[in-house]
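Re-running the complex after MR caught last week's input typo. The corrected sequence lines follow. Everything else is unchanged.
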Amino acid sequence: MTWKQRFTSSVGKKLVMAFTGLFLILFLIVHMYLNAQIFLPEGKEKFLAGAHFMGTNPLTRILEIGLVLGFALHIIQGLMLWSQNKKKRSAGRYEVNAGNATSKWYSRSMGLLGTLVLLFLIMHTAHFWIPNRANQFMTGEEIDLYEKMALVFENPIIVALYVLGCASLCFHLVHGFYSAFQTLGMGTSRYKQMISNIGIAFSIIVCLVFALMPIAFHFNILLG
Amino acid sequence: MEHYNMNLTLKVWKQKNGKTAGRFETYQVKDISSEMSFLEMFDVLNEQLIAEGKEPVAFDHDCREGICGMCSMYINGRAHGPWTHNTTCQLHMREYKDGDTIVVEPWRADAFPVIKDLVVNRSAFDHIIQAGGYVSVNTGNAQDANSLPIEKLKADDAFAAAACIGCGACVAACPNASAMLFLSAKVSHLAQLPQGDVERKDRVVNMVNQMDKEGFGSCTNIGACEAECPKGISLENIARLNREYIGATFAGK
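Corrected-run output:
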């Protein structure tokens, strides 16, 4: 087996999705922890100190390159899987489908959910990450991301889009979290239910905390 | 349970061969006993069609006792019909009531081309099994079973995986038309026993490669296969297959 086969076989493709997916889950935890500082008293100072560290520390900047690569691999492999798998029933599809009787809708819709998350990601990076790094590159100065959030989340449509993006992410994670551990061979009868439950709890907590941020800014209910 | 008779409308997939396009044909069957099996109901339909001078519906069947894996109908959107841990031949008409319409389709997957009507070619499964390898060595009489101790839990797991009858319901039910559950059952029942241990690493790699060549989709852990498997093959086997594959990678296979 060549290295190419290892990652392009049908098991190899799952492994790519699982490794990159778990890496992105780790990123989500760090991202959530840092941004959740805004909910604390003197949240603005705490959040900006964290953002400054993440934006200027050489180690996190190097990890950032890995993060971009992780996103790219996960997105490209996911879209490829989606289009390849759709073609495996080209001779004809079923007249009647089992639907939710045999599987969960979000497990069958990972391609669609992932695409929604990708669209959200494009909007989200266009709001914060890209302008901040562009400014750093050109002037060497970071922008005040706290003020930027307050500005962006004045618009109720943007707030609604962020909440919808978090909802898509939540269902994507409910399947993705369990699926990653199953792919790494941990889906045994002893651990399967536990992993699935942790995955559901994790998805709900992460997406709820993220969704509360635009809402809190929009209705101005932060402690400052 | 009370015995009753019913009249049914059947929408059945008719297709002359793999090259021509298929379509649904609607048939009426009368006085079907609730105690008939689903295939007996099809026998009644075919007798009726032959008497009318029409061509009967081709469908696969053999043992009709749920152990051979030949029957393969996709009934109202469910592989082997609505009952769990059940084959089409063991589905009985008491599931239905008078006036019901039943849609019957073949397994649909590019790796399982239609031969005729409801009959599909499942040779791809044979090729995967062949890729697993075999030995034909004259070793004399079988040795005493007790001279080859196997842990109870492993023996049970291996036996549960070996219960796979290769019917293809997993592929039929999978939105991706993936054969991963079938493959994982075949890998699992050999890898856990001392007889299969020697070649386990080569076997898993060869079988995965063969599966990919046959044109099945990739597994995305949806789980419809496990829900539809007539023999209750567990997704745990897919987790084991992944462990075997990762292990083979580290072993440089």
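None of the earlier attempt is carried over here. Chain B touches chain A through 54 residues (CB under 8 Å). The domain at 5-115 of chain B is CATH 3.10.20.30 (Ubiquitin-like (UB roll)).
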